[in-house]
Fold this sequence. Notes:
It contains seven helices and eleven strands. By secondary structure, the protein is of the alpha/beta class. An eight-stranded mixed β-sheet has the order 3-2-1-4-5-6-7-11, with helices on both faces. A three-stranded antiparallel β-sheet has the order 8-9-10. The longest helix is centred in the C-terminal third of the chain and has 24 residues, at 167-190.
Amino acid sequence: MPENSCKIAVFISGGGSNLQSIIDHIEQGHINADIACVISNKPNAYGLVRAQKANIPTHINDHKNHTTRESFELELIKTLDVYNIKLIVLAGFMRVLSTTFINKYHGNILNIHPSLLPKYTGLNTHSRVLEAGDTEHGCSVHFVTSDLDEGPLVIQAKVKVDKSDTPDVLAARVLEKEHIIYPLAVKWFCENRLAFKNSKAHLDDSPLDQAVLLTQDLETLLK
Ligand code: GRF
């Protein structure tokens, strides 16, 4: 583990393929970071197995064991306090976090969403894109604020929508791009190039008025 690496907590609820992509890029030396812990609200999330295979400490905080969101989040905070966390990465984490929690870690929480935000916040994005007949779809990484899926955008990737696509086929095409843009955003954050200042995402000290769009040149940063 390189010294002074950026300590990350990854929150998951499911398969953890985005977690895996970040693990792989850290192992390949593309990101100077240390995933200090993976926290899942679902005891059977496959992402927990991925973390264990990579020798990353895992914590299950099942929301069903809590009667209030406050108590669920207090347990999250207790776990985060054990590690010296610089960045929280929400990777398919299916619980809404309270304003109190988000403010506590203000500017230090990233999320990935499977749509070209601001289009299609919320769930079932792929079916909604197909129903609307859109020809273009994609994914977005953004800083988390208390407005669900509406925090400042960092990076987006686009995919074409084919007439024959089913939601699953489209989701798989989008996921391939998620596995590139999330590691890139984490890399920039850990290199202190990406920050949340004055309500805006900044890259290299310049405010991002719109998301960076993934290009082949950017992809080479992860090769
Ligand atoms: C991804 O599509 C992500 O954008 C969404 O949930 C899915 C998680 O996939 N929020 P995985 O658990 O990382 O495989």
